[in-house]
Amino acid sequence: xxxxxxxxxxxxxxxxxxxxxxxxxxxxxxxxxxxxxxxxxxxxxxxxxxxxxxxxxxxxxxxxxxxxxxxxxxxxxxxxxxxxxxxxxxxxxxxxxxxxxxxxxxxxxxxxxxxxxxxxxxxxxxxxxxxxxxxxxxxxxxxxxxxxxxxxxxxxxxxxxxxxxxxxxxxxxxxxxxxxxxxxxxxxxxxxxxxxxxxxxxxxxxxxxxxxxxxxxxxxxxxxxxxxxxxxxxxxxxxxxxxxxxxxxxxxxxxxxxxxxxxxxxxxxxxxxxxxxxxxxxxxxxxxxxxxxxxxxxxxxxxxxxxxxxxxxxxxxxxxxxxxxxxxxxxxxxxxxxxxxxxxxxxxxxxxxxxxxxxxxxxxxxxxxxxxxxxxxxxxxxxxxxxxxxxxxxxxxxxxxxxxxxxxxxxxxxxxxxxxxxxxxxxxxxxxxxxxxxxxxxxxxxxxxxxxxxxxxxxxxxxxxxxxxxxxxxxxxxxxxxxxxxxxxxxxxxxxxxxxxxxxxxxxxxxxxxxxxxxxxxxxxxxxxxxxxxxxxxxxxxxxxxxxxxxxxxxx
Length: 556
Prior knowledge:
Elements: H1 4-9, H2 16-21, E1 30-32, E2 38-40, H3 42-48, E3 55-61, H4 71-84, E4 89-93, H5 98-103, E5 110-111, E6 114-117, H6 119-123, H7 129-149, E7 156-161, E8 165-167, E9 177-179, E10 190-192, E11 194-196, H8 201-208, H9 212-220, E12 223-227, E13 232-234, H10 241-247, E14 255-259, E15 264-267, H11 282-290, E16 294-298, H12 303-318, E17 324-329, H13 331-337, H14 350-356, H15 358-369, E18 374-379, H16 386-398, E19 402-406, H17 408-411, H18 417-429, H19 444-456, E20 460-463, H20 465-476, E21 484-487, E22 507-516, E23 521-526, E24 545-546, E25 552-553
Parallel strand pairs: 3-16, 3-17, 4-15, 4-16, 8-11, 17-18, 18-19, 20-22, 21-23
Antiparallel strand pairs: 1-2, 2-14, 5-6, 6-14, 7-12, 9-10, 12-13, 14-15, 22-23, 24-25
Helix pairs in contact: 4-18, 7-8, 7-10, 9-10, 13-14
């Protein structure tokens, strides 16, 4: 059996100008990054501004488990299936972060015969967007420390600087650092730390910005810390926004690639859904909608994280709404939620499946609550019994969602035909009416309680003394009328990764509340969430290699 990277390396890719031409983009609007990657600039957006928009399909999933769900793989396969049905389809996905690529996953461009290519480039440096975001973020950090070193005219409180440095790698040793050591010439000593690049507010801003002017304004609105009298200090107070925007002038342009079956795909922006808002860029999504009959996008991790933020943050800000939602699940993952150990998941166990399917049912309930038609995609494994598959199909229908088996990993677009037909039918059967989880002008605690009770199924929220103080100050500053972005474990509907299935009567513990003023939302950190991941005992990087001809192996 071929590995993912062997399948990708054996693909017969078309020149990217052919992929662009298939959706009406002329060659002169392309900025080439080799033969198989290109960026699209303002010319394309201007030309398409009056075009009607195609239908938007959001792909999400149950809470992830070690058994795997295959959300990105399903998204890509669904796009290829739409193309096989003669539909004009364009995908809009997130860029992989090199931290997880080198850490656990070893790749994030789909799998099997449902991949985006060139897979190695996409998983590694791609077109340099991540590096540009890292540079812009760390330029602001450098300007903060330089301002303090040069006399601190703004009277910044060195003990209340909230802006952190970033790097696009899992590196736990950088979570807490001290900068400015080595004497007066090296700056003022203070406590600092690193986040992973995809958790940076710069990443969120890039994904939510409508154009360069909006990007620059948002960057200027970043709150980097507070003065000794407690007043916010913005990036614009340091005159940093112009230089930061200059570093991002190319990164803001969406990247065009292709699937193994030559379906056009924009890959742009990559915020994590457990510590950020988890959606690709608004620019890429809107371009996909303008260029297709069906635009298919995804949101990170489970529907309680990525899909909720897609609805309550991205749709609210971008003025869009999905016409259907696909929830990806596997029999294996549902049995894991029902208490079966990973080593035993290949054994048929309908009782465990019924215990674990409550996780899927809660996500169906949540997505239907947003007012959007739902289709469940069961990513089929060869160990799934007919009885187990039929049980999932029946319980999905009882929960108000149609269900289709997906075999896109093994068969590519052909394995997603049933799913594609059911998604089209769901869209044609009724119009989507998006309902948000909360009123954005409600108090912070009311908005968070709505998410916890409606989406997670929890009983309430417990706040640390620090969080309560931070909320009070945000309200005093008039910075509280914004959407909520919850940083939470992806493994559970609760903030405790050990609570599988559909936990009840739990409380969510809030440790910190901060405003991403440029992005336009409030980040609420819960449980023991980390904004800088660490590497596992055996990192995927140990298996990645390259030969003398430049052929990479072991990426996945």
